[in-house]
Amino acid sequence: EDLINRIAAGEVVERPASVVKELVENSIDAGARRIAVTTANGGMDLIRIVDDGRGMDRDDLLLSVERHATSKLSADDLDDIRTLGFRGEALASIGSVARLAVASRPEGAESGLALVVDNGRRSGPLPQAMNRGTAIEVRELFAQVPARRKFLKSARAEAAAITDVVRRLAMANPEIHFILEGTDRSAANWPGVSGDGALAARLGQVMGGDFVDNAVTLAAARHGVVVAGMAGLPTYTRANSLSQFYFVNGRSVRDKVLVGAVRAAYADYVFRDRFPVVALYLAVDPAEVDVNVHPAKAELRFRDPGAVRGAVIRAIGTALAAAGF
Ligand code: ADP
Ligand code: MG
Predict the structure, then answer these.
(1) What GO MF annotations does this protein's record show (predicted)?
(2) N or C: which end of the chain has fewer CB within 10 A?
(3) Which of 190, 211, 231 is the last residue of a domain?
(4) What does pTM read for this prediction?
(5) pLDDT tens digit string along 154-174?
């Protein structure tokens, strides 16, 4: 059992940033409006996630750290299994390779309850004073699994990977207030935004106001592919391609078709050694994407890449033309 957990952990929990991704996604699933992430030493010493979501009662709390325990699975959720990957494995896996503390207080409970799973050994739950929501701490990740710890990069690189994960989740969820802090990083505080300009406001917070001021808004649909987001003006470029963000059906993805489509969209304007800056949000019929490539790695395959490519090129081309390019 312990061994199985550790093997599963290798799949789900590659590095501190993958822990952060799983935990923040859980907070989002729990309806949190505010999610605070604290890390130390690139997440290797500490990852703490505090949310104000619906929390867990005693039974759910005990179940949450068991393998294959998920409150999210139902028979007609088969698509969801593929999109969200390893169902009910994250907390159990993390608890098998770190000291995991989970504290939660649901609405109406008089106090919270906290339990600890220390490299596979559970203790608690014990009462803990806290606000409604869930607080999770992961300490000394992989400290007892040297073979995995060895593969981690520097604290600085791991902290940067965590920032990247939180940034993408924040871009996908503008209405949620994200806080990112720790001794190992520069802090971020992105209050939730809603209403008409929500996406532009969030992109301003995360990517910088200069991007929003030098970008066009995308709004186009073609062959069942809806394209939204913002695309930088050809006069506003960056020296590396790290400022291109792609979301499909609300999830951050890396995909060559999208990268290629953006390159083609700017082919007439840009650039030697320069890259356009984009935050592209696609909505497509879930049946048109296969996310089974690797559930934890944000890769996908479009059934009809040509339609997606065409829709993106046209959306950007139309918006840039309207702006005089
Ligand atoms: P999954 O998310 O696939 O269900 P996890 O191992 O990530 O599996 O979480 C197990 C269960 O623990 C979830 O199904 C959920 O019921 C509960 N849970 C985890 N994190 C939170 C949270 N932040 N707030 C409320 N419930 C949570
Ligand atoms: Mg989860």
Answers:
(1) endonuclease activity
(2) N
(3) 190
(4) 0.92
(5) 999 999 999 999 999 999 999
